[in-house]
Write a structure and sequence with these properties.
By secondary structure, this protein is an alpha/beta fold. Helix content is about 25%, strand content about 15%. It contains three helices and six strands; from the N terminus they run βαβαββββα. The strands form two sheets. A four-stranded parallel β-sheet has the order 3-2-1-4, with helices on one face. A two-stranded antiparallel sheet has the order 5-6. It is globular. Magnesium ion binds next to loops.
Amino acid sequence: MYICVDFDGTIVDHRFPEIGEPVPDAIKWLKRLHKCGAKLILYTMRSDGGAMGNTLSAALQYLASEGVTLFAANQNPSQREWTSSPKVYAELYIDDAAYGCPLIKPKGFARPCVDWKKVGPQVEHICLSRR
Ligand SMILES: [Mg+2]
């Protein structure tokens, strides 16, 4: 199962172009979703080579250092054979900007972020049911 996961506001607090404090339980749940077979795709506006620097590489480095295994970043290589659409294909998208996504606002955070205590178990349930 392909799952697209946003970065700022979803995995870390919104501090772009810096990397904010970790969103509570995000890393724990990303590892659990990977364990249950999810192919995680980082789906972010971060990029390399722009005026802000290599903010995508910084995010990838952060996730690698936290032990999160990604399938891809900002693309799903498996869709090339059946579509030329630029939308990144996934069965599920986790994003603080997605309508309906449960949010929390931890003390000191710049903006509300994903509530992984709610999102994690629900997405894991979906992931397990599709194995
Ligand atoms: Mg976001």
